[in-house]
Amino acid sequence: MVASEQTLLTSTQLDTLSINTIRTLAMDAVQLANSGHPGAPMGLAPTAYCLWQQVLRYDPADPVWPNRDRFVLSAGHASMLLYALLYLTGVRGVNPEYEKISEFAVTLDDIKRFRQIDSKTPGHPEYRLTPGVETTTGPLGQGAGNSVGMAIAGQWLAARFNRPGFETFNYNVYVICGDGDLMEGVASEAASLAGHLRLPNLCWIYDNNRVTLDGPADWSFTEDVGARFAAYGWNVAHVTDANDLGMLAKAYNNFLQTRDRPTLIVVNSHIGYGSPHKQDTSAAHGEALGEEEVRLTKKFYGWPEDAHFLVPDGVRQHFQEGIGKRGRELREAWEARFEEYSKQYPELADQLNRMQHRELPDGWDKNMPTFPADAKGIGTRESGGKVLNALAQNVPWMVGGSADLAGSDRTRLKFDGAGDFQPGSYGGRNLHFGVREHAMGAALSGLSLCRIRPFGGTFFNFSDYMKPSIRLAAIMEIPTIYVFTHDSIGLGEDGPTHEPIEQLAGLRAMPGLMLMRPADANEVVEAWKVIMQLRDEPVALVLTRQAVPTFDRTKYESASGVAKGGYILADSDGKLDVILMGTGSEVSLCVDAYEQLKAQGIKARVVSMPSLDLFERQDEAYRNRVLPPEVKARVSVEAASTFGWSRYIGPTGVAIGMHRFGASAPIKDLLKKFGFTTEKVVAAARATIVQSK
Ligand SMILES: Cc1ncc(C[n+]2csc(CCOP(=O)(O)OP(=O)(O)O)c2C)c(N)n1
Ligand SMILES: [Mg+2]
After folding, report:
1. Ligand 1 proximal residues by C-beta, below 6 Å
2. What is the DSSP pairing of strand 374-379 with strand 430-432?
3. pLDDT score at 196
4. I need a labelling partner for 468 at 20 to 30 A (CA). Which of 313, 413, 439, 591 fits?
5. What SS3 state is found at 360?
């Protein structure tokens, strides 16, 4: 039943034809690329088809409609499933300004170029590269984690922006996940959080096919997943036959009726279902089926065996009449209501428009605190919390929280009306992630993808617990904000388990992530100003626990130099003898050493380098002005691994840093033990002057 018979097809036959089109496109694309996973898209085709065609409130003509239902393919290895859906439903493209354009997101030619260089159909779905892809997935569990942030965003937007008669936000978030996703810790953390928050707009669809790459899931995964989710507080529904569209529709309805908690739909399926010839599931898995198996499977589907990338007449039209028509009507009705809403609530509508384009409100940087010179000073976590609270009052869609350390990392929003995001108070702007760093990382991305400006805090050392999510935010180029405090051995008594050593070097090595480690309270203000203006870059703001002096800016240079990543803080007239450079809490050591050297007649310069990433973006003339190539005597000071500093100190420089894990003791003893003293910096300066002669 192909092409010519289309006019005679019943809706059931059209269902089958559409499902088999998805399956054969996946088989053909993987076969041509000789790479990828055909089995998962084949087994999942009816589940995804039913969701898109009958349930999803999504207009393919406008993939950035703010109230669209979100579809997340957490099982990113099944990417061909998503590409087939984007192609068959005719999802349109968007430009970098998030405006829709007439081009299709994915064409049949794109599908033929699956996994090829510069194609719009990469191995795993990538946000930004392929319109219609809501988030980048592939590392298992991450999409599921993102979806909790998207669902939080949905509830928050509804609470903040809906008005009587204007249900501006009521979208749902659907996730397809597999055994792998549900084995990963991040998904468990996220599910636990979603259950606590009773997010009613969240639906995970679990492809319970009982196999993973290595073989039967029984080898490693035997728990009762449904019971686990029930214990998390989720509604759990079962579909015992993944090919039964009636059962699938009932399960989706069950979700739509359940308005007091998230829903897990457990779908029992067989990977690569429909291919009775292949009993060994492994081949249907991480690799192409092979020409012969493709033919046999097509024969089983009643498909012309020699046709490749066949899209029978009527299939795309069928999708247009289903999801296309439903989505268009919903979106158009929404737009008409939004026009009326904009008249009645112009301020709210303006906020939504700015959010959609990642713009800031006017006056976003007003009432910034200023910090007078103070030799004792305050911790940068402290000044950071003050700046954050000032900014969040100016930017109503800044929402965030901490992984159970808000009291320590100072990320709590304390002003009137900030509130807590909890069941029953979804308009709160303080999120309580609990001790779930990884889910926090993934959820922050989900929030950002729904246009909220999210921040999340924890101890810097625990950035490792969320690094896979940070990495994906960097790949996606989304402006998430990570506030990492207790940034060195300076945290003291908690000892080596809590003292970051290699984290600065590690995160600096990550492309697309901006790292900022300001030196004093006024650098913190400037750092936050840079951060707020980022539109397509995540940032790690790294702050101290301990007090650091607030520099006298009448004596030293202005903190506005932070915007250039590195700047001259203190200088000497005439020919320089030595450059001292540092970041964060160690800059004050450089300043103290500078003063001593000055008294000894040595001409030194202090360069504060809060962001090496930003510094590298400055032109050569500026960089050479700050770090003149002819001055070879250089010292870097950072209470962390010295990895990376050789680039700035050169062969005759000295890097003061950590070469082992820290220790548990009061800070003053640690700084002495590990050599973070003025004397040590002065001695290093003298040594490098000699070495570079
Ligand atoms: C974090 C992470 N670890 C490992 C992989 C490699 N990987 C891709 S698919 C897969 C098996 C997943 O099994 P399942 O979720 O059951 O999907 P199915 O094979 O059933 O489609 C693995 C281990 C990955 N993508 N992400
Ligand atoms: Mg599986």
Report:
1. 40, 75, 77, 138-140, 178-181, 209, 211-213, 271, 285
2. unpaired
3. 98
4. 413
5. coil
